[in-house]
Write a structure and sequence with these properties.
Elements lengths: L2 E5 L16 H12 L4 E3 L28 H6 L5 H5 L12 H21 L5 H7 L1 H16 L10 H4 L3 H10 L1 H27 L3 E6 L8 H5 L14 E5 L9 E6 L3 H6 L3 H13 L2 E4 L7 E6 L9 E4 L3 H11 L4 E3 L7 H10 L3 E4 L21 E4 L8 H7 L2 H11 L7 H10 L5 E5 H5 L28 H13 L5 H24 L1
Parallel strand pairs: 1-2, 1-12, 2-3, 3-6, 6-9, 10-11, 11-12
Antiparallel strand pairs: 4-5, 4-7, 7-8
């Protein structure tokens, strides 16, 4: 079945109070997707962000981001007052997130909510904490200790806490019990709101595609609580770190800095950590997108302490052994894999053996010197096509910054015109392709330029900020998008009408039965 969706981070929704949340704006966006004939809402990772504000560098790969907790819902639950929310500074622009202001205001406000939460703890709070204890208890202690240590990385904590001596951990749990409870509350509120939002989306026929970064941050509860799973020395410092080698786009390569997995150790315990992680993500999302898939075939290891990625070496990853184990333990899961970049024959083989659909990005197609795998006429059906991802410029930005020969090639290949709009022509190339699934970023639907770009890889300070405004997500845009979906058979209007009529009939029958009783 041919389907389509929209890539839109939660942070980019036009919610009040400085950042997108899981509240009213999220539901309105789901309604927009339904009206426009979409099947999928793809988001970026929803974990808590650390320094640099990247969702790919998180304090925990299991926890939810407290910034996404909707404050209006907390007002309805009498945990906050509207006047309190309005009294805080949320930054000077509705088009961009101000993370510095967000950090100060959001946590101060959530502390007020906590004081009221403790007065009347919900009946299901303890059950939530027990159900999630496997990751939650390490995370809340990690965050409490991080606060107590002025935010410094766990590698700089007192030695007994750093190496997790039981006596020191027990003392810390007693000393910081209240702080830990605050962080438990944040996770309870996050997952409660997430569950409600996901159920709403699913009720509208929208499935959520969520992102799983391959690596975790060095300064995270994941590494602190599971040091034997990572390449660390006797002092718990990284031996080698992740990144990408130099290429035509970067002479120094990309130095990500994440600690690398000890795949040998992970194999010994049946990939327990990965099993828990994928199981948690499969519960959160309808479809899981795994980032940097090639790293499971072979990964680039850079000596820790190097300033560039030049001295790295390729090392062998777990390959299909990991995915066979995951399938054996969790069953067959709906997974998309990010297989972009330079791919060796062994990576192609891994993708083929896995059976997972890979990704095609139309922006990568138009190097006029070669016949690219990213040109739509070369696609297999079993793939997901994007105009661009969160790491690319927007389509309109690309047309201004790409080499002239590439722009000329794109215009000729897709028969692009200014009248149609270059963004609509590029999206047409995705929708009209044979790819089973087509995903376009919201910025491309809106025809925005580089000012709306989400991320520029290997840069800090100006990423993950873009937000849509409420007046941009319109019924008119939904109608235009729906027509395109019908045209390229990514929605079946007759089937939709039949399903809608059946649903209305079921609801009417249920209402009649209720009235009889």
């Amino acid at each position: 079945m041919r389907t389509s969706g929209v890539l839109m981070p939660i942070s980019s929704l036009p919610s009040p109070y400085g950042i997108g949340t899981m509240g009213k704006a999220a539901r309105k966006f789901v309604d927009f997707l339904e009206k426009s004939g979409q099947r999928y809402w793809q988001i970026l990772p929803i974990c808590p962000t650390s320094y640099g504000d990247s969702p790919y560098q998180s304090f925990s790969s299991f926890a939810g981001n407290p910034y996404f907790i909707d404050l209006e819902y907390l007002c309805k639950e009498k945990l906050l007052k509207k006047k309190e929310c309005e009294s805080f500074d949320w930054g000077g622009s509705e088009k961009y997130v101000d993370y510095g202001t967000m950090y100060v205001s959001r946590y101060a406000l959530l502390k007020k909510a906590y004081a009221r939460f403790r007065e009347d703890v919900p009946d299901d709070f303890d059950a939530f904490c027990k159900a999630e204890a496997d990751w939650l208890e390490d995370y809340v202690l990690f965050m409490a200790l991080k606060d107590a240590n002025g935010g410094v990385a766990w590698s700089e904590w007192d030695e007994d806490l750093k190496v997790r001596k039981e006596k020191a951990l027990k003392q810390a749990r007693e000393e910081y019990a209240e702080d830990m409870e605050f962080y438990r509350m944040l996770q309870y509120l996050f997952f409660k709101q997430w569950k409600d939002l996901k159920e709403y989306a699913n009720s509208k026929g929208i499935e959520i595609i969520g992102d799983v970064p391959i690596y975790v941050a060095g300064d995270s509860a994941d590494v602190w609580a599971n040091p034997k799973q990572f390449y660390l020395d006797k002092d718990l410092n990284p031996i080698e770190v992740a990144g990408c080698p130099p290429d035509a786009f970067s002479a120094d390569g990309q130095l990500w800095g994440n600690p690398l997995f000890r795949w040998d150790e992970m194999k010994k315990d049946g990939y327990t950590w990965w099993t828990k992680r994928i199981a948690a993500m499969a519960k959160l999302y309808d479809i899981v997108r795994i980032d940097h898939f090639r790293g499971f075939d072979s990964y680039y290891a850079i000596p820790a302490g190097d300033d560039t990625a030049k001295n790295g070496k390729w090392k062998k990853g777990p390959g299909m052994d990991l995915f066979h184990t995951l399938e054996k333990k969790l069953g067959k899961l709906p997974i998309i894999v990010e297989d972009l970049g330079f791919l060796t024959p062994s990576v192609h083989k891994l993708l083929e053996d896995s059976g997972f659909p890979g990704m095609k990005v139309i922006q990568f197609a138009f190097d006029s010197r070669e016949d690219s795998d990213y040109l739509p006429h070369n696609y297999p059906k079993h793939c997901v096509v994007y105009t661009g991802t969160h790491d690319n410029d927007t389509v309109m930005g690309w047309f201004k910054t790409a080499p002239k020969a590439s722009v000329k090639c794109a215009k000729e290949y897709l028969n692009l015109t200014k009248e149609e709009g270059y963004n609509w022509g590029m999206m047409r190339g995705a929708w009209s392709s044979v790819a089973d699934m087509a995903i376009v970023p919201m910025q491309d639907l809106l025809g925005l330029g580089s000012e709306a770009r989400i991320n520029v890889p290997s840069t800090l300070g100006d990423n993950w900020k873009w937000r849509a405004t409420e007046d941009q997500i319109t019924n008119r845009l939904a109608r235009k998008l729906y027509k395109c979906m019908v045209m390229y058979a990514r929605v079946n209007p007759f089937k939709e009408e039949k399903e809608k009529a059946e649903k209305e009939a079921e609801e009417a029958a249920a209402k009649a039965d209720k009235e009889k009783k």
